[in-house]
């Protein structure tokens, strides 16, 4: 809520004055969501990189690997499962955050053509459709949005699991 209200008073006028349009747009919501998920991603990334076996880093150093080579060929491959997990959790949090999207994206039921156009997210649509007849299109759209969110979440987790299996060394 604090992120959303801060953005309404600081970011939306900046976008409106600097780039044109109403200010309530995909760019505003995406920017605030990026700021929101940065701590989650940072914690997972740092924890994953600190969990790399120091013996492997020392061995790479002994072989004459530069800092970039140690990072690219030793640290990132070992930390990849944790990095992927952090990315999936942060993405899930951004997608599931309903309030910021409701406050900043503009709530228009259109397909945005640019980042400055308003839009409505799936979670925002679910939250806004309060009362609808059982057989109505609005009621069915709630379930369609829920299924789409579930499938995205399941697909992300499956991809990370497959990725983790490929990264594990065979015993």
Write the SSE topology.
Layout: H1 2-9, H2 11-19, H3 26-50, H4 54-62, H5 67-96, H6 98-104, H7 122-128, H8 137-167
Helix pairs in contact: 1-6, 3-5, 3-6, 4-5, 5-8, 7-8
Query: What percent of residues are in strands?
Result: under 5%
Number of strands: 0
- Low-pLDDT segments, ≥5 res: none
Strand and helix order: HHHHHHHH
Cα distance spanning the termini: 48 Å
Tell me the structural class: mainly alpha
Main beta sheet: none
Shape: globular
Helical run tally: 8
Q: Determine Rg (CA atoms, Å).
A: 21 Å
Mean pLDDT across the residues is 87
The share of residues in helices is: over 70%
Total domain units:
1
Features:
single chain, 171 residues, mainly alpha, 74% helix, globular
Brief summary:
The protein has 171 residues and is an all-alpha fold. 74% of the residues lie in helices and 0% in strands. Helix 1 (2-9) packs parallel to helix 6, helix 4 packs antiparallel against helix 5 and helix 7 runs antiparallel to helix 8.
Give an overview in words:
The structure is a single chain. This protein is mainly alpha-helical and 171 residues long. It has one domain (2-53, 81-167). It is 74% helix and 0% strand. The chain is built from eight helices and no strands. The protein has helices at residues 2-9, 11-19, 26-50, 54-62, 67-96, 98-104, 122-128, 137-167. It is globular, with a radius of gyration of 21 Å.
